[in-house]
Amino acid sequence: MDLYFSPLACSMATRVALYEAGADATYLEVDPPTKTVLKDGSDFRAVNPIGLVPTLRTDEGVVLTENAAILQYVADRFPQSGLGATQGIARTRLHQWLCFIGTELHKGLFIPVLDRKASQEVKAYMLEKNLSRLDYLDNYLKGREFLLDHFSVADAYLVTVINWTMATPPIELAKWPNVKAYYERLRQRPSIAKAIAEEFELYKAELARKKAAA
């Protein structure tokens, strides 16, 4: 299968899941400004017209988009990994957390703060409105190792999003000690440590390309 990604973007969650599952995959980096696949210079929008990562092409050639859907596919495709939840309320809880991370944290909180074109007024408003989501998460994680009763694709997604606090100074993890402890603990997990290290190096290369082109 092929994973189209950009360094340290939300697509890193799928990289973590694939590493966790021990799955074979080809990782195809997409340049965010130009939507170019760096390996061959092709237009990524020919694969995903919206131009967003992650995008996954399965072994059967099916193209999947949207982070939560791709993560659930990986969990179902590799059930031996234990990344998902098979049925009943446990599976619904997994869906719940994927939705919460995607809407309340990823899109609701972090994207506005990371947006370089957003005004300081907009960023301040979004922080005031949505920081309560981290209060909720901090309270939930008290005494818990993972979001479910085991490491799942939801944890892969959450760690990826929390990792963005490196670039969002107004969101200081020390204010949420349980979230901070969770993040620092899971960063030591081999699949996550490997993904972050690899993508950070690719991100530095991306910055160097931008500087050279300026």
UniProtKB/TrEMBL annotation:
InterPro entries linked to this entry: Glutathione-S-Trfase_C-like, Glutathione-S-Trfase_C_sf, Glutathione_S-Trfase, Glutathione_S-Trfase_N, GST_C, Thioredoxin-like_sf
GST C-terminal domain boundaries: 87-214
Pfam families, sorted: GST_C, GST_N_2
Residue ranges occupied by any GST N-terminal domain in the UniProt entry: 1-82
Gene3D superfamilies: 1.20.1050.10, Glutaredoxin
The name this protein goes by in its record: Glutathione S-transferase family protein
Organism field: Bradyrhizobium campsiandrae
Lineage, opening ranks: Bacteria, Pseudomonadati, Pseudomonadota, Alphaproteobacteria, Hyphomicrobiales
